[in-house]
Amino acid sequence: MNDEGDRLKEDIRDEGDETKASRMSKLRNTRKEVTKLHSFSTEIEVDIANSKDNTGNSTQIPTAPQLSSRMKHIKQEMDKNHLQFVRFEATDLHGVSRSKSIPAHFFQEKVIHGVYMPRGYLELIPNPKDNEVDHIRATCFNSDIVLMPELSTFRVLPWAERTARVICDTFTVTGEPLLTSPRHIAKRQLSRLQDSGFSLFSAFIYDFCTFGVPEIINSKTISLPASALLNDHDQPFIQELVDGLYHTGANVESFSSSTRPGQMEICFLPEFGLSSADNAFTFRTAVKEVARKYNYITSFFIETGFCNSGILSHSLWDVDGKNMFCSSSGTEQLTTTGKKWLAGLLKHSAALSCLMAPAASCRKRYFKESKDLKESVPTTWAYNDNSCAFNIKCHGEKGTRIENKLGSATANPYLVLAATVAAGLDGLQRNDGVLAAPEDGTDLHQPKFSEIPLKLEDALMALEEDQCLRQALGETFIRYFVAMKKYELESEETDAERNKFLEYFI
């Protein structure tokens, strides 16, 4: 065991110049020499290079004492709650949780070796054509991939009996990160942001609809909206949901009835790094599972054919803990840094919309107020105007922040976060001048912004042509995402689209 510990220390010293893939390769060679261990107190040293703090910086790994302490805590939680199962969860391209559950007594072994899952579970195209998708360094689309747990995300699930979950990163069987993994892409963008001296402070705001159990009316299956009083939120369902989310680390700031029958809005407290996307990912599963305990069905899809909104509220902070969007003058305006960041979002809004409203139904919300048949709509922004694509809020204790309202509730939160960071960083790094406010005179600098395409086909084209996002998110991911969406459009049956969304996203 001492020889193994020396090797692991050498790995850590060399870590700055190595990718995670190379670290995993070294670990696999190391593990071949290690016998199977039967106590949680010693096995954690074996897994030192496979776990990271949940900060969004993929180059930081905890020390052996930190990991040993974390595993000791996990063991205590498992004993205290008499856990029987642990879910190893990973996000698919739609942001839906795909998991494998294992008996709790195998957790030690699976932490070391990972859990195998068919690649197609996460990438969703049955048989991609060779000329559509180039899987770099992948042996086969139908091959297995490995779920490796991030131990900092281990949580007991209050709504699932004697069950915990851990969020996983995905790798090929040869130890390389899965290049189509939304969580991996988000980590990479947050690492770029940190290299620039900034951190993202963000939170998601979701609308969702609650339906009663389906009823047969005139030979048709209909789900009626659940009744919700505008000023009474004492429903056991929403109380259990909010309390359960709190115990998984996802802190809900507020919840309320929204504009439609059975429609609710839930706002999370902002957090730094990847945590906001992890919280959103947790919520998307929790709301469905808790609702079914009360004979409800929840959906991010409205019965009228629109998708609910999914807003990313965010601000940029420096290493000294200062909000870089806040003006020192106390006036309602963005700083120069904030305006540059916003300019990046505006410039790439067409491509961003493809990732944030990734289906034809999601895009209806862009023109729901317009009676004119157009191919695109302008990208708008303003201060304290909830009708704009980018709403700048300067009031409240959170300080100045930008609400990215391009997103629908069906969008993958990791992709929303990653694409927002990539576009904002491009704005910071370009010298296009300072963005003028909408009410400012026309003599001030006002760069040309892309418009938001109303058709998904046009949005896909905008994403393919956006060199900044292609480079930031990766050629492999862009090619795969576009191929997946084209496949969906080709195979889509208009009459079945509503059912597809109701069944998949509930």
UniProtKB/TrEMBL annotation:
<dbReference type="InterPro" id="IPR008146">
    <property type="entry name" value="Gln_synth_cat_dom"/>
</dbReference>
<feature type="domain" description="GS beta-grasp">
    <location>
        <begin position="81"/>
        <end position="175"/>
    </location>
</feature>
<dbReference type="GO" id="GO:0005737">
    <property type="term" value="C:cytoplasm"/>
</dbReference>
<feature type="domain" description="GS catalytic">
    <location>
        <begin position="182"/>
        <end position="506"/>
    </location>
</feature>
<comment type="similarity">
    <text>Belongs to the glutamine synthetase family.</text>
</comment>
<dbReference type="InterPro" id="IPR036651">
    <property type="entry name" value="Gln_synt_N_sf"/>
</dbReference>
<comment type="subunit">
    <text>Dodecamer. Interacts with BFSP2 and VIM.</text>
</comment>
<protein>
    <recommendedName>
        <fullName>Lengsin</fullName>
    </recommendedName>
</protein>
<dbReference type="Pfam" id="PF00120">
    <property type="entry name" value="Gln-synt_C"/>
</dbReference>
<dbReference type="InterPro" id="IPR014746">
    <property type="entry name" value="Gln_synth/guanido_kin_cat_dom"/>
</dbReference>
<feature type="region of interest" description="Disordered">
    <location>
        <begin position="1"/>
        <end position="30"/>
    </location>
</feature>
<feature type="compositionally biased region" description="Basic and acidic residues">
    <location>
        <begin position="1"/>
        <end position="12"/>
    </location>
</feature>
<dbReference type="GO" id="GO:0006542">
    <property type="term" value="P:glutamine biosynthetic process"/>
</dbReference>
<comment type="function">
    <text>May act as a component of the cytoskeleton or as a chaperone for the reorganization of intermediate filament proteins during terminal differentiation in the lens. Does not seem to have enzymatic activity.</text>
</comment>
<dbReference type="GO" id="GO:0004356">
    <property type="term" value="F:glutamine synthetase activity"/>
</dbReference>
<dbReference type="GO" id="GO:0016020">
    <property type="term" value="C:membrane"/>
</dbReference>
<dbReference type="InterPro" id="IPR008147">
    <property type="entry name" value="Gln_synt_N"/>
</dbReference>
